[in-house]
Design a protein that fits this description.
- The protein is an alpha+beta fold.
- It has two domains: about 90 residues, Enolase-like, domain 1, CATH 3.30.390.80; about 80 residues, no CATH class.
- It contains six helices and three strands; from the N terminus they run αβββααααα.
- It has a three-stranded antiparallel sheet.
- A hairpin with a 3-residue loop joins β1 and β2.
- The protein starts with a helix and ends in a 6-residue tail after the last helix.
């Protein structure tokens, strides 16, 4: 997955309200290492990224240490984003799917009823559900059907964890042909 794709997806999912910083870096003989920190909606993920040091073939002198560090930082960003679910489907052995309605109700103490107000999907999550669904070529009824099939309730009644799962599922869908 390309760095710009991860950035676009983070911007879409969090409306630009996320940050990434290089916490530390290390330059070794043959590689550079970066520890990156990604924060979004109060969640923080940290991961290492690495890149080989680029050297001139003949002289063996460094070509651009800055570009090597940038590549390692991008690697760290991608790994952090994966920890938040962005691009996770690329690493999964089998496709990620929402829980079946009966399993979702069994794990939901409300038995499929709307989540209590404190646990309800956030407005940002609901907005992401509709935006990602639209970006994938789905109409609102199709998005509602996915939510009902996976969790036994419409998006507005989802708990935050269920909404996060639905966003992941929608993100993993192939774009519907127009």
């Amino acid at each position: 997955m390309e760095g710009h794709t991860v950035i676009a997806r983070l911007n879409e999912a969090f409306e630009g309200a996320w940050s990434f910083e290089v916490v530390s870096h290390e330059i070794r003989e043959e590689e550079v290492l970066v520890l990156g920190r990604l924060a979004a909606e109060g969640v923080v993920k940290m991961q290492f990224g690495a890149s080989q040091v680029t050297r001139d073939r003949e002289t063996k002198t460094l070509v651009s240490l800055g570009d090597d560090l940038k590549a390692a930082a991008t690697d760290a960003l991608k790994k952090c984003a994966t920890s938040l679910g962005v691009g996770l489907h690329l690493y999964a052995e089998k496709p990620l799917r929402p829980a079946a309605p009966s399993a979702a109700r069994a794990s939901n103490p409300n038995g499929g009823k709307p989540a209590p107000n404190g646990d309800r999907a956030t407005p940002r999550q609901l907005d992401a559900i509709w935006k990602v669904g639209t970006a994938k070529g789905l109409d609102p009824e199709e998005v509602e059907r996915l939510s009902l099939r996976g969790f036994g309730k419409k998006p507005e009644a989802l708990a935050q964890t269920e909404a996060a799962s639905l966003i992941k599922e929608l993100s993993n869908l192939k774009r519907k042909a127009a």
